[in-house]
């Protein structure tokens, strides 16, 4: 007898391919057709990743010799989403810098001048960074939304012969001051027939 998790429904529950990373996505109104040319961050190489990790504190009680059911407190969520962007644009560079200013350059003509700022303003946080990817058993995508996103890893570019640069954008989700009881992410998983 084979012991396996494989069933007749396995083929309907596979995340396929790298998907796309978009900014300021509205799950209630946006569709792929309305955003593919305006909100996509850029082409990727190596896709990306999503992580939502709770920090759990174990409450210690005299006489209890280890972890006990009900004696844990969730202190925080650390939420990140990373996009390995191959399509280097002025916008991607600005996103990597967390807080920056972009404007047409006076000199040299035909350039965008991007300068980093020394402080993070509320306007520097994106409404969200969202990953949209294909689920094998559905015509609808899986959607992962990281709210109040700010790239926290800065800008690092490596250039080499016979290779193209990739910008790793790692956005951290931040709690909204008006929604402190809601961790800064949402996952929309389609119904599978």
Characterise this structure:
This protein has helices at 32-35, 90-96, and strands at residues 15-23, 44-58, 72-85, 100-104, 112-116, 126-135, 142-151, 167-172, 185-188. The model has no long low-confidence stretch (mean pLDDT 94). The chain starts with 14 loop residues before the first strand and ends in a 5-residue tail after the last strand. The protein has one domain (13-188). It is mainly beta and 193 residues long. β4 and β5 form a beta hairpin.
Summarize the structure.
The chain is mainly β and 193 residues long.
How many DSSP helices? Answer: 2
Percentage of residues assigned to helices: under 10%
Largest sheet: 7 strands, antiparallel
Q: Compute the number of strand runs.
A: 9
Mean pLDDT, all residues: 94
Q: Class by helix and strand content?
A: mainly beta
Overall geometry comes to globular
Q: What percentage of amino acids are in beta strands?
A: 35-45%
- Order of secondary-structure elements: EHEEHEEEEEE
Task: Count the domains.
Answer: 1
Unreliable stretches (pLDDT < 50, length at least 5) are none
- Intertermini distance: 28 Å
Radius of gyration: 21 Å
